[in-house]
């Protein structure tokens, strides 16, 4: 079991949970794993990004690795550039959707995929040993490398987006330059918000967790479609011209039907998670599309896709993987494909979405004592009692967040009232456990 790595890299409050020492150790570990390693590193706009990038680079160079700093770019950009620049590893300094005070370190292998749990554990073995100093590596800055990613994004569609109005909320994060530029070059009329690039405001009242910001922009601009990304742009939530919101579940359904019609949905199967709404599963079945579930976490989705040679998978949170074009979740790429669908089909997202969702309620309990609460026997008994009162098709999920001090609750059943009631009761029950 990993000590430092969570469900999506190493993450915590910068310079407290995630120290420069940890960043240095990670760099040194990668340098020890591969002789004269070549490492690409990028970051989002967070203020702590430069400091952690510098610390990582020092540790890596001490171990003989050569580091290429590509500046402020998205997570999927780092994954692609790791391949394009023939690097041994890629590292993204970002805490994704977390608040500005957080930061994180995500590691990609030479083929642009995230480390699996075995690889993370192997790296952590080096963390307990002193930093090794070999023949020193060098640091190179390549701010022009992002153009390779921008060209890749434009290559995923053959359509001219002229006549389409697109609204973008870039969460004051890594996509604040890239997304606007690419959509304009594809011919779209673009309206933006959350594009200051101010790392102190990353994810603050904007982006994929604050969709009302995008809805306001779509309404005032008259956009045909809008997209909100998180801090490192590996997530996407969409809004159509009616201001209806489309999370990852809904977008996967729309994408799956479109790809199947094009003959591009491999094995007529998509990958979701335990959180994916059961209504999506039923609707996919009606369209003769299979869906398999994994644990929550995009790396588990990607692993299942690779094992079964599939082309589409993702999470309700907005991580969507289109493996024909990329190795990881890519919000901007997904936005381009969705715009392609809307233009080609001449329909809004609401017109394209015909699935009936099950009532599902989500709650979050913030606590620094996640494991004690999750493992409490009385909580297990309470969940069993609730499950017995609900229909057999109902689902209750309680899990500790792998990236924040939170416990997440999901109740899915046939009744809106019951979903709300039991989600709230579970939240109250956790508070009682925590206060004892």
Would you kindly provide a written description of the structure presented here, covering whatever features stand out?
It is a single chain. The chain is α/β, with parallel strands linked by helices and 436 residues long. It has 15 helices and 19 strands. The longest helix is centred in the last third of the chain and has 19 residues. The mean pLDDT is 95.
Short description, anyone?
Helix 14 runs antiparallel to helix 15.
Show the helix and strand layout.
Blueprint: E1 5-6, E2 9-13, H1 20-33, E3 38-43, H2 49-62, E4 66-72, H3 75-84, E5 89-93, E6 102-109, H4 117-124, E7 139-141, H5 146-155, E8 165-169, H6 178-185, E9 189-193, H7 212-221, E10 225-229, E11 236-240, E12 245-246, H8 248-261, E13 269-273, H9 278-286, E14 290-294, H10 298-308, E15 312-314, E16 320-322, H11 331-345, H12 349-352, E17 360-366, H13 370-374, H14 377-389, E18 395-400, E19 406-412, H15 416-434
Parallel strand pairs: 3-4, 3-5, 4-7, 8-9, 8-10, 13-14
Antiparallel strand pairs: 1-2, 2-6, 5-6, 10-11, 11-12, 15-16, 17-19, 18-19
Helix pairs in contact: 1-2, 5-6, 14-15
